[in-house]
Amino acid sequence: MYEQKRIAALIVAAGTGSRFGAGIPKQYLKIGDVPMVKMAAAAFEKSAFVDDLYVVAAAAHIEDCEKMLADMRKLRAVVAGGDTRQASVYNGLMAMNSPTPDIVLIHDGARPFVSGDLIERTAALTAKSGAVVVCVPAKDTIYVAKNDILEAVPDRETLHAVQTPQGFSRELIVRAHERALADGITATDDGALLRRMGVDVHLVEGDYANVKITTAADLPEETKVGIGFDVHAFAEGRKLILGGMEIPYDRGLLGHSDADVLTHALMDAMLGALSLGDIGGYFPDTDERYRGISSMKLLGEVRALIGRDGWRVSNADMTVVAEKPRMAPHIDAIRGNLAEILDIPMDCVSVKATTTEGLGFTGREEGIGAQAIVQLRK
Questions:
Q1: pLDDT digit string (tens) for 144-180?
Q2: Is the pLDDT of residue 25 over 90?
């Protein structure tokens, strides 16, 4: 409520997201652990200016959307969308009758980063003027072209990129939609429907962070960091395997698998970054399937595991702690092995070696330790 005017937010989320190519409508993809449409709706749910919340969804997703937004006390209805955005908005407007709002804020379900400040500024100006569109000044020079030939260069100072929310008197926006319907006019922007009726549409300064997610490139990149550490004792009669490389030495490392201590530390770091436990939970030393198995094969399985939710290793920094053998001749080969399995460039994999100056179990040449730090990106 603002100045005794009841305000409803209409989240338009009925699109198919075909340009995104995710297999599901993009507005249901998660950023962090929250679907985009819920992030957008939550901003209006939290606003003291907003009384009611309506969401337009494709008919096939109404039930899922209702469950997703079940904790929102302002939600009045999830409405089936139409064949176009314009039809979807009209369906949403027609559902607003109990109670009927004075002002409607129309917002894209694929704009998850709308701020409370922007919502409030839009609502306040709408209460005064009746028709408001959020815009940001164009940053780039814009060409008007035909058949790939430059025809005109508009003055950039006059150009604005349109965002949402767009705020309207409900009476005005319903009239604009009904006139467009009668005239057979289709527009991708509600402000344009008001303009064709001769209504002055006022601009409110938007926010460059209030992006619309149209392609995968528009998604923010998430990062997480994990640390792994492992040790193995030396044992007679075994091969010494580090980073998938057989290192010439008179002893190997003791373990159920090939005891590749460096790769084990790397896998633990990857799992730890996502709070997925450690390798013992996935490849227990009580399971005969893993007896003598190559740790590089297990590394591939861990990479696939984190990849299910879109995560990948961005870079890895590892340290081998051993008095002997000398690691320098093998470092690049190890980096190449690990980079290949992780499917990242070799220069994103760092492997170093150090000693403990004769101290501790590694100093006494009783075994080898390894530490890994990884950054994951999504």
A1: 999 999 999 999 999 999 999 999 999 999 999 999 9
A2: no
Residue of 51, 54, 48 whose CA lies nearest to 11: 54
Instruction: For residue 325, give every residue at least 6 positions away whose Cβ sits within 8 Å of its Cβ, in sequence order, or none.
Output: 240, 247, 248, 249
Pick the CATH number of 223-377 from 3.30.365.10, 2.30.110.10, 3.40.1010.10, 3.30.1330.50: 3.30.1330.50
Helix (DSSP H) and strand (DSSP E) numbers for the chain? 11, 18
Determine the Cα–Cα distance for residues 6 and 170; give it in Å rounded to an integer.
10
The single residue listed with the structure tokens 């039930």 is 63
> How big is the CA angle at 124 (ends 180 and 212), to the nearest 5 degrees?
60
Q: How far apart are the first and last CA of the chain?
A: 39
Task: Give pTM, 2 decimals.
Answer: 0.71
Residue spans per domain, the chain: 7-218, 223-377
Q: Which two tokens stand for residue 137?
A: 């000044």
CATH of domain 7-218: 3.90.550.10
Look at strands 367-377 and 223-235 and give their pairing. Answer: antiparallel
Answer yes or no: same fold for 7-218 and 223-377.
Answer: no
Q: Please give the backbone phi and psi of residue 353, each rounded to the nearest 5 degrees, phi first.
A: -130, 145
The predicted-structure confidence for 317-362, as pLDDT tens digits, reads as follows 999 999 999 999 999 999 999 999 999 999 999 999 999 999 999 9
Each residue of 217-246: pLDDT tens digit? 777 788 999 999 999 999 999 999 999 999
Distance separating alpha carbons of residues 225 and 280, to the nearest angstrom: 20
Q: Residue 365: is its pLDDT beyond 90?
A: yes
Tokens of 336: 């190449």
